[in-house]
Write a structure and sequence with these properties.
The protein starts with about 50 loop residues before the first helix and ends in a 17-residue tail after the last helix. The radius of gyration is 17 Å and the shape is globular. By secondary structure, it is mainly alpha-helical. α2 packs antiparallel against α3. It has five helices and no strands. The longest helix has 18 residues. Helix content is about 45%, strand content about 0%.
């Protein structure tokens, strides 16, 4: 360890399998904090959840103002689920990342990701494919409205701007 920074003396942080993995703590929006700082617990990677559980866990994180962490839940779903559902989970992950960037003050990136996500929803926007209760039309509306506000320079608070995934 490098005593001055509290981080590794050289090289990259690695997990138990030797893969590069940042060990730096992160805040609720996923921004890296200095080594040794108190951060928000990270989402475990590679968790296989039932689709309904994925939606519930992501909603819990969104409601807590942690869209970066919700994105990781959706990422697990797209990596572990059937290929036919990949667009749905990628779209939801992209919306969460768009909210993350907007809340971090990156208006251009946030609005771009919120708008680009609409292109990923594919057949789901037309009622095709299983959505597991996700309110596709409502989320498309939410993303468009938030992107427009972000482009006008409105500040975004991730907790109060969190969408309702199921419309309920």
């Amino acid at each position: 360890m490098n005593e001055e920074s509290g981080g590794p003396a050289r090289g990259r942080d690695r997990d138990a399998e030797g893969r590069a993995r940042s060990a730096r703590p992160r805040d609720g929006l996923g921004r890296p904090l200095p080594y040794g700082a108190a951060g928000v617990a990270r989402q475990p990677e590679g968790v296989v959840r039932a689709p309904g559980e994925t939606v519930r866990e992501a909603q819990r994180l969104l409601d807590a103002g942690m869209p970066f962490h919700a994105h990781e839940v959706f990422e697990d779903a797209w990596k572990s689920g059937p290929g036919g559902e990949r667009e749905l989970w990628q779209w939801l992950a992209q919306l969460a990342v768009g909210l993350t960037h907007a809340a971090r003050g990156n208006a251009t990136g946030g609005a771009r990701l919120l708008r680009r996500g609409a292109g990923r929803v594919g057949a789901y926007a037309d009622g095709g494919g299983e959505t597991y209760g996700v309110d596709v039309a409502g989320l498309l509306h939410w993303a468009g409205e938030l992107a427009a506000r972000v482009e006008r320079g409105a500040p975004v608070d991730a907790g109060t701007e969190a969408p309702r995934l199921t419309g309920s």
